[in-house]
TrEMBL record:
CDD domains in alphabetical order: L-Ala-DL-Glu_epimerase (cd03319)
Cross-referenced PROSITE patterns: MR_MLE_2
Keywords: Isomerase, Magnesium, Metal-binding
Naturally occurring in which organism (per UniProt): Gemmatimonas groenlandica
TM regions (residue ranges): none
The name this protein goes by in its record: Dipeptide epimerase
Free-text cofactor note: Binds 1 Mg(2+) ion per subunit.
Active-site residues annotated for this sequence: K157 (proton acceptor), K255 (proton acceptor)
Binding site for Mg(2+): D182, E208, D233
InterPro entries named among the record's database cross-references: DgoD-like, Dipeptide_epimerase, Enolase-like_C_sf, Enolase-like_N, Enolase_C-like, Mandel_Rmase/mucon_lact_enz_CS, Mandelate_racemase_C, Mandelate_racemase_N_dom
């Protein structure tokens, strides 16, 4: 297989700010694997600074791995993913792009969408949340919540200096929406404890990553006192992180850009299920190409947060989407993604 990697710059409709900062412009890498017969599979890398990745480090990783793909059998996805684990250990975004492209290629060759290859029913996909990032002021926040009126489930980013006020405003503007909260590791256990009542008061039904990633005992402390289910995101990168989170959280948030492969995502689902945990899948700021890979296994999830492309003003791809939060998957083969 020949590997082609191209950097794409995309923009969010509003600056996407979370507890540790954010931007309006993001760079992703579009990966195309072309086999000897001309068949092509696509994938996307959405690098995360938090995990030490940039679009440049993804491009370097692609150059490093291209020779391995040149002599690889495109059906041997498991073997290629094991090689990726060894060679690109510290670049999950890059691994994810190649894994997605291999799955896209295999399903296209078989002439079926990936969800069908996995034996899934698109109707079983849970509704996706739509994220309200940290806004600079109350008026901006109100406008953003009103703009998101089509989405019945909102995920509010907290971890700023006016969290309580944010909750009150969002609930005022969206009186009937289901509300979820993501603090992106911003709080101490004491702060999290103090937030439980304000969160309950506005009817928040999920609290994502209140504490620092390593603070598993802190998560357990919060969960034991929380009427709201607690979900681990930054604390849960791959399947082997899950056993130590048992009892400390109610569920996990999988992201392909964190775990680095579709097969690892499947392992995470299986391990979490084995421990009776709730399973969610999230995303980074990604285009429809990146979101598609997760959308295809979304029927296996309890909760979806696949709004990465819906937050963009210039998505370069078309394919699976989330109008009103409903994950739509077509019968198009592979990931079902086209260049716009
Ligand atoms: Mg999160």
């Amino acid at each position: 297989m020949q590997l082609h990697a191209e950097m794409l710059t995309v923009h969010t409709t509003h600056p996407f700010i979370i507890a540790r900062g954010g931007f309006s412009e993001y760079r992703v890498v579009w990966v195309r694997l072309r086999d000897a017969d001309g068949a092509e599979g696509w994938g996307e890398a959405a690098p995360s600074r938090f995990y030490g990745e940039t679009a440049d480090s993804v491009m370097a990783a692609m150059a490093q791995f291209a020779p391995v793909l040149q002599r690889a059998n495109s059906w041997s996805i498991d073997a290629i993913e094991r090689e990726l684990e060894k060679t690109l250990r510290w670049n999950a975004a890059a691994r994810c792009a190649i894994s997605s492209a291999l799955h896209d290629l295999a399903a296209k060759r078989l002439g079926v969408p990936l969800w069908k290859l996995w034996g899934l029913d698109p109707k079983a996909a849970p509704r996706s949340t739509f994220t309200i990032g940290i806004a600079p002021d109350a008026e901006t926040l109100r406008a953003r919540v009103r703009d998101a009126a089509a989405y019945p489930i909102l995920k509010i980013k907290l971890g700023s200096t006016w969290d309580r006020e944010v909750l009150r405003i969002v609930r005022e503007e969206a009186p009937h929406a289901t509300l979820r909260v993501d603090a992106n590791a911003a709080w101490t256990p004491k702060q999290a404890l103090a937030m439980l009542q304000p969160l309950s008061d506005v009817g928040v039904d999920m609290l994502e990553q209140p504490l620092a990633p390593h603070d598993i005992e802190g998560l357990r402390f919060v969960r034991e006192r929380s009427p709201i289910p607690v979900v681990a995101d930054e604390s849960c990168v791959v399947a082997t992180d899950i056993p130590k989170l048992v009892g400390a959280v109610d569920g996990i948030n999988i992201k392909l850009a964190k775990c680095g492969s579709l097969r690892e995502a499947m392992r995470m689902i299986a391990v979490a299920r084995a421990h009776g945990m709730r399973v969610m899948c999230g995303c980074m700021i990604e285009t429809t190409l990146g979101i598609a890979a997760a959308a295809h296994f979304s029927p296996l999830l309890d909760d979806a947060d696949l709004d990465g492309a819906a937050l963009l003003s210039d998505d370069p791809f078309t394919g699976p989407s989330i109008p009103n939060g409903q994950v739509t998957l077509s019968d198009a083969p592979g990931l079902g993604v086209q260049r716009r």
